[in-house]
Structures are given as C-alpha cells and as structure tokens.
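Memo to structure team: turn this sequence into structure tokens by end of day. - J.P.
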Amino acid sequence: MPSIPHVERRGAVYYWRRRLPAPLSKSLNGSHLVLSLGTKEPAVARQLAAVLDGEAVAMASAAGEVDGFDHRLSAEQLRGMFAQVARTHLARLERVAQADRLAPDFTVEDSRQTDHNMAHVYRLLATGGAKAAVTGAIRAESVKAGLSEQRITIIGHMLGAMRSSLDAPTHRAKLEALLAGVGAVASPINIGLAQATKFRAMAAALSDTCDRWDGIFADDAALLEALTRQQAIVLSPAPATSPVFVPAPPASPPVSAKASVACPPAAVPAEADPEVDDDIVVHAERLVAGRMRNGGDKTGRQVLSGARLFARYLAEEHGVTGLRGLRQEHLAGFARLLQSEIYVHHGKSEHDERRSIAELRAL
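Reply from structure team:
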C-alpha cells in the first residue's frame, strides 16, 4: 500500500506527525506535533490523517504562517498601523471639534470629557474585544483611580452602544486594508492584532486633547522662534504635523483616570536677538508686505487685523508688549478668547479696531 503523507508506523500502530508553525514551535518549545491514530489499519489511518492535515493548515494560518512562511506582524508594522490610525483619527476629531464649537450649548469641558470617555471605551474594546464590558472588578479599580460612579456608568452605556454598532468590531475589509498598508498578510491572528491596534490608536488620539480643547499647540514654540528671528514660516500640512504615537501596553485597569495624555509644559521661547524688532504687528506687516504691495489682499488684511487684536489682548490682559514676553499660556488664552469669549464676526465693524478687549467681550 502506498505511504500515507505525514503518517509513520511505530510497531503495529500508525502515528500522525506534522511540523508546527514557527510561531507555535517557539512558544511550545518543540518543532513537531505527534499524535497516535490508535489504529493498525492503513485505510483508517489515511482517513484520520486527511482530517488532521486539514486542521493543521487552519492552525498554521491562524498562527500567522501562510505557504510555509511566518507572517506575524513585526514591531515596526504594528507601529506603522498605530501611527496611520492615530493621524487619521486626530484629523477627524479636529473636524468634529470645529463643528461642536458652532453648537449653541457648546462647552469646552463637556467636549473634553466626552473625548476622554470615548478613549476609555476604545481601551476596553482593545482589551476585551466583542465581549468588552465594565465588570465589577473594572468598576472597583476605576473608582479607586478617581472616576465617579456616574462617569463609569456613562462609559458603560457608551461601550454598549459601540458594541452594537458597525464600528465594533471594525469591518474586516478595513482591517485588511490597514494590514496591506504595512505589507502584512491578513491572517486571523494579524486581523485580531490590527483590530486591537486600531482601538488603542483611536483611544490615544481621543486622549490627546491638548490641541483641541486645552489650547496647547505643540508647534507654537517653533513658530514663535521663526517670528523672532525673521525666518520664513512654512506651515506643514496637517497630517505631517499630527503627533505620531508609539504603541504601548494597554493601561491597567482599562478605565482609568490616569489614561489621559498629559499636555506638554508651557514652552519658553528662546531669547531673541536684541537687534530684532519685538513688535508683533511689525512682524505681521513684514510677513504680508509682498501680498499687500499690489493693491491689497483680503488674507493679508485679516492677518494684520488678527495681529493687532493679539497685540491688544497681550497688552491689556497680561501687560506684555512684545514677543520677548510671550508665553504658551498667553497663546492658550488668546485661543479661548477667539473661540468662545468674543462674538464670531468681530473685526467686520470699523469700530472694533478701537474697542478694548473688555468691550469686545461685552458685545
């Protein structure tokens, strides 16, 4: 009778022997799996071996091995997926934030809290998958970490809504596209890792509220230095300046008051050359001089109007009269002034240029 693939005879009994996929061989500290087929009949052994061969192929695929090659995700591929999702989600969150600011009942505190709550939801999904839930143990740890019972309940409701939506879990085609973007094979294990990585990256983007709600902009220090040294200012496209997150182990417990991304400390601008003009409006005029030279330019006029308003704000609110005294908290305060403290169409009236900051707030 012809030999049976992956079957050997020991004494009178047939055994099935198959090489383990590379990922499993390392974790099990062995290269082959050997099973007794419990039969002395070659026909029965052939049938049983065919069934086991099929299971072995499925096991290899699930472990990340396809066509005999190990296709597990590397650390670099995981970081690449994390960064791609984080950049995309940060851009989406910024668009949502701009829309939120137009709502009549908008408050920064509520929007910031909602983002942090959703970050907790995505962390729970990353660790618990489709069965993620706010268990008693998680609730107890969250209370210990400083979260209120009301907030934990809200997070639980948001998690339930996410689990019943199409976004949790993500549609397989989107995960396959994410894997393809880093040159990875869409094996079952890689699909699971892509899903968890996507949830973690979205949680990180939601936790990073420094730009959206705290008025702390990471690029402002470089912008100020360029202004003080009269260098050309080149603003990069948004995706290129978005923070790139390096994946880290999920927070423990998943719902935790410590999970939020801390905003960077206020940056102190470099000491300016004493011979460089310190006047903000003068710098703005120089920046737009080329645009204004040929008959005026709407964008240039808007830049000058904004610079004059900024200069008045610094002088009246903080006693700062030039770039040398400028600090990060002054930029954050000016951002809040524009976003929520003065009326939207300020600057369109010719009288606005003569009004104080207090008068603009009172309108």
